[in-house]
Design goal:
Elements: H1 2-20, H2 25-39, H3 43-71, H4 77-97, H5 103-123, H6 136-153, H7 158-167, H8 172-197, E1 208-209, E2 212-213, H9 214-237, H10 240-260
Antiparallel strand pairs: 1-2
Helix pairs in contact: 1-2, 1-3, 1-9, 2-3, 3-8, 3-9, 4-6, 4-8, 5-10, 7-8
């Protein structure tokens, strides 16, 4: 029964990865926490296990959605190179500090951030024509912050990357496609970090590799690959304004869950 629920989680996670340029972690982490509670996994290990497993699944979904966006010409590799250097360092810091950072505070703060960005996307005006992306330092610095927060929460950072790029006049489809590509370095670095930090935890269930729970990982990625491609295909055909509003609704929903979900 749980295997089927893991697989169903992969369907929604993959689709959201392709459609909105997020890695699916905003779907995977909350669902895994609920399923791990049903399974009876020790609560002291469940959160890190859910986050680590989420990051591992994002490695796969980000590859799938990025390839589709690349074929459509929706990835700006120049932005990716400058932004990605900060993402890697941030993800490393996030994995190391995960045990030391108060989870409830970060959860609520990130939820509020999501809702504020949703309001900006839905009701804010167009950015000034002259507002351009910062240079290498600015982009890598932004990537460091996004990578750190993403690694802590087990997400790919799309909820921050897409609004940040839109704020600097990057076209919506390019912002979504580049965000999908940016999820890969976050996920790889973060997953490796959670693997090593979980090796000495004796409360983990069988079939765990550090803080990566392999039955959930395998079940999720099997169905997340085709649905990520489907989401990316749909995103490339949507009107940019509609996609922007859909993403705003998605961000607001996630923010409500994080703030009020307990």
């Amino acid at each position: 029964m749980l295997i089927a629920l893991y697989a169903l989680t992969g369907v929604f996670a993959g689709f959201s990865a392709g459609l909105f340029g997020v890695g699916g972690g905003l779907v995977v982490v909350p669902v895994l926490l609920a399923l791990f509670a049903i399974k009876g996994i020790d609560p002291s290990a469940a959160v890190h296990l859910a986050i680590g497993t989420s990051l591992a699944t994002i490695v796969v979904t980000s590859i799938s959605s990025t390839l589709t966006h690349r074929r459509r010409g929706n990835v700006d590799w120049g932005i990716f190179k400058r932004y990605g250097s900060g993402l890697v360092l941030g993800a490393i810091i996030g994995a190391i500090t995960a045990d030391l950072t108060p989870g409830p505070i970060l959860r609520v703060a990130f939820g509020i951030f999501c809702m504020l960005m949703a309001a900006q996307l839905a009701f804010g005006g167009q950015p000034k024509p002259g507002r351009a992306l910062p240079g290498w330092r600015g982009l890598s610095g932004a990537g460091l912050v996004v990578g750190w927060i993403s690694s802590l929460f087990g997400i790919a950072g799309g909820g921050m990357t897409v609004p940040y790029l839109l704020f600097h006049n990057v076209k919506t489809k390019l912002a979504v496609g580049t965000s999908a590509a940016a999820g890969f370095p976050i996920a790889v670095t973060g997953a490796i970090g959670y693997y090593f930090t979980g090796l000495d935890n004796l409360q983990l269930p069988p079939y765990s590799a550090g803080y990566l729970y392999m039955p959930a990982f395998i079940s999720i990625v099997v169905l997340s690959i085709p649905t990520a491609k489907l989401g990316a295909e749909i995103a490339s055909r949507l009107d940019p304004l509609l996609l922007k509003r859909c993403f705003a609704g998605f961000l607001f929903s996630v923010g409500c869950v994080l703030v009020f979900g307990g």
